[in-house]
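Page 37, top half.
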Amino acid sequence: MTARSNGHLVVEALTNLVAAIRANPRLAIGTTMARVTWAGSTQAIARVRQFEPIIVDEPPAFGGTDRGPNPVELLLVALGACQELTLAILAEQLGLQIQAIDVEVQGELDLRGFLGIDPEVRPGFQRLEIAVHIVSPEPEERLRELLALAERLCPVSDMLRHPVPIETTLEVSRSRVVPA
């Protein structure tokens, strides 16, 4: 029996979703959106769907007040959460017994890139490391297969491993317009 999960609901929901998409492939295409509004200084307020706003801030070394995680920390959270949830969902689908999953993500930054000190240094992470710890009675080989499948199917991992086209537009206003 798996802990912290209702595998029946996960498997049933995914089975229904797969059947619906197979019947109508256009259902597979969707758009996700986040809105981020500058709150002054180094703070921003991020909003996703109906959830509580997320305060994004920088540490004092960057002139911030440390009221929330900074953008690169949120990227690490997104990667770790995506890996963990993908592992949990796949384990349910494959009938693997999992008691706990813990994912730690570390990223190495070289601030010379972000600060414009050295144009040869990229401003983003130089490398990422993911440590996955699983508590399970399953054979290690099955868990390694599970991890390999999760790494292949995790959307955030995919976006970091393979460049995603980004299109940026600019709209300039002469007066403050409050988004709805």
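Page 37, bottom half:
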Amino acid sequence: MPTLEVKLDLPESLAKEAQQAGLLAPGELERLVRDALRSKRVERLSKIRQKIAAEPLPPMTAEEIQAEIDAYRVQVRRASG
């Protein structure tokens, strides 16, 4: 696991409060970063879902779906062989 050296410039009162709350401990910082990343992924997914809802794709017929499947299978065979 890589070790990162990070310098945080925080107002003294905030740094003191965070330290007292245990937020600056390595395990807690890892949890905070994981939570922030999860939140960013959810936010990005939400934006994508809104865009898809605003611009839905037209429905495909069974024949169109089968043609896409067949094209994908040909592509996979070419890539593997």
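Margin note: Residues 12-80 form one domain.
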